[in-house]
Amino acid sequence: MRCKKCNGVVARLVLAVSFISLSGVATTQETDKPGWLSRTTGELQVNDDSDPRFSIETVQPIFQSPDKAYTVFWQGRAAYRDSEWTTNIGGGFRYLEPGQMWMLGVNSWYDRSYEEDHDRWGFGAELFGPLLTGRFNYYDALSGTKTISTTATTRVEERAVDGFDFELEAPLPYLPWARLGTTFYKWDTEFTDDIDGFALNLKMDVNDWARFEVGYQDDDADEIFSASLRIRFGVSNSVEYTAADNFISDTAFAPRSVAERTLDRVERHHGIVTERRTVSTATGGTIGGVTIGRGT
């Protein structure tokens, strides 16, 4: 246990130093920066339910046609919170229609958390327009029920759960740099009743390299407030409006270029959601309720 705690402290220090260092890279001049940096971000998230989370994420092209009509890409992520690592690797395809007013995307994923060796796969679909974005994601747990610990009278079990979510995202009036996402989700649990909920997430591009997000979610298991800072390590063409450049627009809903969204990162619930319970070895019944883990 002592070694595990030491490793956790070291991991936090390494990630914090890396995040600060890469934040410095983001604020330097663009000269000589490789293009992939503009599609790489670091994030620090805090909420009222768990320890802070650090993550690094990148999305890179595999193939893109000259007119941007067809794009094939991959996306990777690594995240750390409270001694637990999660990695996500995915690939996707996006089709931009000839008028460049709408774009359809599909993607698939493999997710893994390492503390209890949970894994799952998932797929998603996206629809981008000049104002609105719609997203659907499905999650299918691959790992079965894990026995976390045992005593003479009890055992602790944990399992990853299936689920899905749907998000509709739109800009705020006269604030084109701020977009509000409304998400409805469901997690299919076995130890307790299924969890239905919704989330609101306000996404604000403060300047060319920083995005600040505040979120609220409420479901059958919990109510959570969160905030995060996402740092881009290079200036991205997909960031058309920022608070620093155009705080209030003359137009109520300023359209954006859909053609610049071809290499946007896929937004989904990357953390593997779990349910945990303590079971009586004598009766097989649950003792003390079920705990829902939101993942890393």
TrEMBL record:
Q: Which Gene Ontology CC terms are recorded?
A: cell outer membrane
Q: Where is the Inverse autotransporter beta-domain domain?
A: 42-269
Question: What Pfam families does UniProt report for this protein, alphabetically?
Answer: IAT_beta
What's this protein's family per the entry?
Belongs to the intimin/invasin family.
Name of the protein: Inverse autotransporter beta-domain domain-containing protein
Q: What is the species listed in this Swiss-Prot or TrEMBL entry?
A: hydrothermal vent metagenome
Tell me the organism's taxonomic lineage.
Answer: unclassified sequences, metagenomes, ecological metagenomes
